[in-house]
């Protein structure tokens, strides 16, 4: 390893010269491309998979197209201040390739920088010392905007005769020990070989990325989205790519990764926003454990189907129809009406079937009219059709139903008893109680209002059963036009919305590829909601069953198996933990293997030599102990500090840290969350508060405590309050 400062500066200057050349070429090429575009020349997408192809007769034209695309993506990168060039490989003999966030060619169409997703860039990620793939030296350039500020080298082929200088301690460790900010960063310069395989897996079918905490599942999945856009741009920009994650906090955390890779055409949605397209609203509210469990279960399907059929007016008069024409009483009873209903619903959805049902009822009534009473058939039909009692009956028997109106009926325990007789008594109680807010009759200190995240999937199911009510569709269109949408609408979304819609079609927005993060938490009812957004799509599903917060794991596994079972699929298991030091992860591993012996336990890549700090306090002394430990943590780490506490303590702790004079000094890097909110996130210092209460309060119990215990990148403190039962596996 060469260590001289002067050598390093000389080497950086050489790299700077290349980077300058790249920017100069890019500026000229994009200026040309823009002016050609202005002249109205049509621009095609270039064939990026054949990157190093010899120049051919179409190359001049393609170069303009290429530059045009590069200019578009560069505009995104500029706003993110990301260095365009970040890597270099020296291959034997004497071949050098530069790797960057986008590809750039010179006037002769020779590559100056290769897009990291091109096949020619693969050795940058895949080469190892055991299998160097012809790479002698891999170099990571650290850039700030267009300035090279550092280099980190790996010598891969020690056997090759080389005079190449080697600098730095390796880029991965440098990246991992850097203090974390509030948002996730891309890892494009340090993707590891096993991660690269998952990123570049084929587009078709279902790709599953599993692995324990901190193995890079989320960040790999996001790079995969960028890779798929690169290799299938025409199809995916038109068809759309959707990334679904557990919460808005999580979506905010990951939102910068794709723009920093030059991609801005991916839609990000929290699972509670996934049915925005048909409902026009989203939710972030989480139900208590018991109601969340029953609402996520497939047993709700039967409940909802029966709920739709349950007459709104529970009176025998609503179940039969009678009209009198010329003194003759024509009537239909419950059995005949049910037959008509079944017949209509076999061919259309409830909200679209009213006219058909009305016709069928009229025809059935006409057939009841005695043959021996004389009346013109047309007159008879008109008198039946316009009979006031028939119209009143139709309003009661076949009203236009909105999903929210139907679901709200579950606030009535008597209704739950009727449609939920296959649920247990506890499930029925939990279900009815969770809708008490509808009737304004919620009891207890905590008043909950509004639809929950779990309700969103139920409402979406109801829209699917009912068809959209006509006035609802109008409201949603207005809502979308008004721009007051919770998610970011991308250009691709807008283009798709312009597609002419069949008048009868539900406005479900569909995607060509759907990427689901924290897939272990997606309930069977939520899988149904997601699958409606991707009837033809390919999927990437990311998850770790050991971190699941949905208790009915057999049901979620069956729902996933059903999705996977339909076509080709492949699974990648990531095995290295890049987040937590080994000392932190070993403690977490002891806790999870007690309850989940099959947990995927990754190998931690770093060690700090500092064991987690375990302490205990009483409820009475909580604030003092919390203050002391947080000040301690703030002194030990430079970056973020997360307090992960049981939901019941959230408000108290948030208030305390906001108002405490001594904690205010570092409030900009201190955050208080529940373990469910902490899913997928990480902090440099973590304080896990009252683990026993976390286990008691949160669905998923020890599995969610495991989530809390695996968030730290540097230091972890665990503060018990009153009890320490969770510590049993540590002895
Ligand atoms: N190749 C890499 N180079 C640099 N950093 C990496 C690499 N792989 C992962 N990381 C970092 O490791 C951390 C964990 O990554 P990520 O959040 O994607 O893991 P995860 O498997 O989704 O974790 P969890 O299951 O706990 O949500 C992040 O800070 C990420 O940037």
UniProtKB/TrEMBL annotation:
<dbReference type="InterPro" id="IPR014016">
    <property type="entry name" value="UvrD-like_ATP-bd"/>
</dbReference>
<keyword id="KW-0347">Helicase</keyword>
<dbReference type="GO" id="GO:0005829">
    <property type="term" value="C:cytosol"/>
</dbReference>
<dbReference type="GO" id="GO:0043138">
    <property type="term" value="F:3'-5' DNA helicase activity"/>
</dbReference>
<dbReference type="Pfam" id="PF13245">
    <property type="entry name" value="AAA_19"/>
</dbReference>
<dbReference type="GO" id="GO:0003677">
    <property type="term" value="F:DNA binding"/>
</dbReference>
<dbReference type="InterPro" id="IPR000212">
    <property type="entry name" value="DNA_helicase_UvrD/REP"/>
</dbReference>
<dbReference type="GO" id="GO:0016787">
    <property type="term" value="F:hydrolase activity"/>
</dbReference>
<dbReference type="InterPro" id="IPR027785">
    <property type="entry name" value="UvrD-like_helicase_C"/>
</dbReference>
<keyword id="KW-0378">Hydrolase</keyword>
<keyword id="KW-0067">ATP-binding</keyword>
<feature type="binding site">
    <location>
        <begin position="211"/>
        <end position="218"/>
    </location>
    <ligand>
        <name>ATP</name>
    </ligand>
</feature>
<dbReference type="GO" id="GO:0000725">
    <property type="term" value="P:recombinational repair"/>
</dbReference>
<feature type="domain" description="UvrD-like helicase ATP-binding">
    <location>
        <begin position="190"/>
        <end position="581"/>
    </location>
</feature>
<dbReference type="InterPro" id="IPR027417">
    <property type="entry name" value="P-loop_NTPase"/>
</dbReference>
<keyword id="KW-0547">Nucleotide-binding</keyword>
<dbReference type="Pfam" id="PF13538">
    <property type="entry name" value="UvrD_C_2"/>
</dbReference>
<protein>
    <submittedName>
        <fullName>Helicase</fullName>
    </submittedName>
</protein>
<dbReference type="GO" id="GO:0005524">
    <property type="term" value="F:ATP binding"/>
</dbReference>
């Amino acid at each position: 390893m060469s260590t001289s400062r002067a050598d390093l500066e000389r080497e950086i200057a050489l790299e700077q010269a290349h980077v300058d050349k790249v920017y100069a070429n890019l500026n000229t090429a994009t200026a040309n491309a823009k002016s050609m575009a202005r002249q109205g020349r049509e621009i095609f997408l270039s064939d990026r998979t054949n990157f190093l192809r010899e120049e051919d007769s179409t190359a001049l034209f393609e170069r303009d197209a290429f530059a045009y695309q590069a200019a578009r993506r560069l505009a995104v990168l500029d706003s993110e201040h990301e260095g365009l060039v970040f890597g270099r490989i020296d291959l034997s003999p004497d071949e050098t390739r530069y790797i960057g966030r986008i590809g750039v060619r010179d006037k002769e169409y020779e590559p100056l920088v290769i897009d990291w997703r091109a096949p020619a860039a693969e050795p940058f990620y895949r080469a190892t010392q055991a299998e160097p793939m012809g790479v002698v030296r891999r170099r990571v350039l650290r850039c700030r905007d267009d300035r090279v500020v550092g280099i980190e080298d790996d010598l891969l082929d020690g056997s090759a005769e080389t005079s190449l200088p080697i600098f730095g301690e390796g880029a991965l460790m440098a990246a991992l020990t850097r203090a974390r900010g509030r948002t996730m960063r891309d890892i494009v310069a340090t993707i590891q070989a096993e991660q690269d395989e998952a990123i570049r897996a084929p587009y078709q079918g279902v790709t599953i990325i599993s692995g324990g905490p901190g193995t890079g599942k989320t960040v790999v999945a996001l790079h995969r989205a960028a890779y798929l856009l690169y290799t299938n741009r025409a199809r995916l920009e038109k068809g759309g790519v959707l990334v679904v994650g557990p919460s808005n906090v999580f979506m905010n955390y990951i939102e910068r990764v794709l723009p920093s890779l030059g991609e801005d055409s991916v839609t990000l949605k929290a699972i509670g926003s996934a049915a925005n397209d048909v409902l026009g609203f989203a939710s972030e509210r989480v139900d208590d454990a018991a109601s969340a469990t029953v609402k996520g279960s497939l047993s709700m399907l039967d409940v909802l189907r029966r709920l739709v059929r349950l007459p709104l007016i529970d009176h025998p008069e609503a179940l039969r129809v009678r009209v009198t024409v010329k003194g003759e009483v024509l009537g239909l009873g419950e059995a005949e009406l049910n037959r008509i209903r079944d017949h209509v619903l076999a061919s259309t959805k409830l909200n679209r079937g009213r006219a058909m049902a009305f016709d069928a009822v009229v025809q059935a009534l006409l057939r009841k009219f005695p043959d021996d009473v004389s009346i013109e058939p047309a007159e008879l039909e008109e008198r039946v059709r316009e009979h006031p009692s028939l119209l009143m009956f139709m309003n009661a028997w076949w009203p236009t139903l909105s999903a929210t109106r139907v679901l709200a009926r579950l606030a009535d325990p008597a209704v739950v008893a009727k449609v939920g007789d296959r649920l247990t008594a506890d499930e029925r109680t939990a279900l009815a109680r969770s809708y008490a807010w509808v009737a304004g009759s919620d009891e207890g200190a905590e008043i909950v209002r509004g639809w929950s995240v779990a309700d969103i999937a139920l409402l979406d199911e109801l829209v699917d059963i009912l068809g959209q009510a006509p006035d609802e569709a109008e409201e949603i269109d207005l809502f979308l036009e008004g721009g007051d949408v919770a998610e970011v609408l991308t250009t691709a979304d807008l283009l798709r919305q312009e597609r002419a819609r069949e008048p009868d079609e539900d406005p479900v927005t569909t995607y060509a590829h759907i990427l689901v993060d924290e897939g272990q938490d997606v309930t069977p009812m939520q899988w149904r909601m997601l699958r409606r957004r991707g009837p033809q799509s390919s999927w990437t599903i990311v998850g770790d069953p050991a971190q699941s917060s949905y208790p009915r794991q057999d049901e979620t596994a069956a729902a996933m198996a059903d999705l996977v079972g339909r076509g080709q699929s492949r699974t990648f298991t990531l095995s290295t933990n890049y987040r937590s030091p080994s000392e932190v992860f070993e403690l977490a591993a002891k806790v999870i293997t007690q309850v989940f012996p099959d947990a995927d336990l990754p190998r931690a890549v770093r060690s700090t030599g500092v064991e987690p700090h375990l302490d205990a306090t009483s409820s009475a002394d909580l604030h003092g102990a919390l203050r002391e430990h947080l000040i301690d943590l703030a002194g030990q780490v430079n970056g973020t500090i997360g307090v992960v506490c049981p939901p019941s303590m959230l408000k108290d702790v948030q208030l305390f840290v906001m108002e405490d004079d001594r904690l205010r000094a570092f409030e900009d890097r201190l955050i208080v969350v529940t373990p469910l909110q902490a899913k997928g996130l990480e902090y440099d210092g973590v304080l896990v508060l009252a683990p026993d209460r976390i286990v008691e309060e949160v669905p998923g119990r020890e599995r969610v405590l495991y989530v809390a215990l695996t968030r730290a990148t540097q230091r972890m403190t665990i503060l018990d309050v009153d009890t320490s039962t969770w510590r049993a596996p540590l002895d």
